[in-house]
């Protein structure tokens, strides 16, 4: 068995991974705090906010495939993906501040309009361009499958470390900045500047391979990439593994949105909003530990399928036990089982980009089209549709239960709903994800197709582009 060529130094992998500091400055702040900021600080109605977020999601699926197509057709000195990653975050920074800078002196209609425009531009335009490009780099800077897994592990270590930090300190940070609407705006500005700096460093820390390098020494079909938006969409939906990954990612973001209900759960059920930060430690530290060991486990098991399936079984069991402990009112047990669930979720986060790269290879083997940029649209689509709809559902369910952010003590119906959203729904979502992962053996499918085509199993099939 020939040894795969390596393309990256350790600092390239670390530099790439640091880019998720920027992504999670946006994502963690939105999923964990935007709803409680809008309801408890600005005084907006949770149901109306949820509806606006749901309407905003109409644009997301379109822009994901649109930017994925643009990345595949981009040719610059920086490469295909890096320009979109680099410049897309400038818009992210501006619109993130806009979401958390709603003037309290405005009328209600103007406030809702301000939020809707800022939120939609952030998610549907700028975050899309940045995140799809960032994810696509995995397939564009190296052809080595182990390096792709390592890039994913570094990436999500930074992601979960950033989420941990933001979830742990934001409430106290807002208070330090004066509290209220002004405190939230100042914190958002600081986070946006940090994200902008780190994103710039990350995008310049790796170099994309040329088309010639991508094709070097491998099975090549010299054919110019010409396909329309509709054809690109068909390529995606005809790849069953893309559909599985997209569904999994959407469910994971729904899960994250429900875990974000922990801000309300800590404040109104546990009577201590800072407990949200404690739970964040028991989620993110096990995730980081799992990511550290994922590459070694993958090498030992010689594949991603079994690890993803069995680890998510552990995650599902963990969330079931969290629900039991929660209804018992046993916080130490809740924390312990939260850590177990997070440990089981870690491996998929580490090797997901490598699975998507294999999914892109599956499209080439079956359709003879190279669609790296479009294929990675499942990550942005999942974040925005799953996270956005999750936040929308949270708002609608809170409103339905009688929750009002202006009340110090919430009605029993609202407390019961918080238990359902924070304890029951995450378990159900993990169970569904486990079932999907049990069917997602794209490695086996690719090995079979390569055998049929007479291609070495260790080759990563690449199509040249003129």
Describe the structure.
The protein is 77% helix and 0% strand. The chain starts with 9 loop residues before the first helix and ends in a 13-residue tail after the last helix. It has one domain: Growth Hormone, Chain: A (Up-down Bundle). It has 466 residues and is mainly α. It has 19 helices and no strands. α1 crosses α7 (145-176) and α5 (82-99) packs antiparallel against α8 (180-203). It is globular. The longest helix is centred in the last third of the chain and has 37 residues, at 331-367. The model is unreliable at 219-224 and 462-466 (pLDDT under 50).
Cα distance spanning the termini: 32 Å
Q: What name does the CATH topology carry?
A: Growth Hormone, Chain: A
User: What kind of sheet is the major sheet?
Assistant: none
Range of strand content: under 5%
Q: In total, how many domains does the architecture comprise?
A: 1
Number-wise, the strands total: 0
Number of discrete helical segments = 19
CATH homologous superfamily assignment: MFS general substrate transporter like domains
Q: Which CATH class applies here?
A: Mainly Alpha
Tell me roughly what share of residues is in helical segments: over 70%
CATH architecture: Up-down Bundle
On the 0-100 scale, what is the average pLDDT?
Answer: 85
Which radius of gyration do the C-alpha atoms yield? 22 Å
Which term fits the overall shape? globular
Structural class: mainly alpha
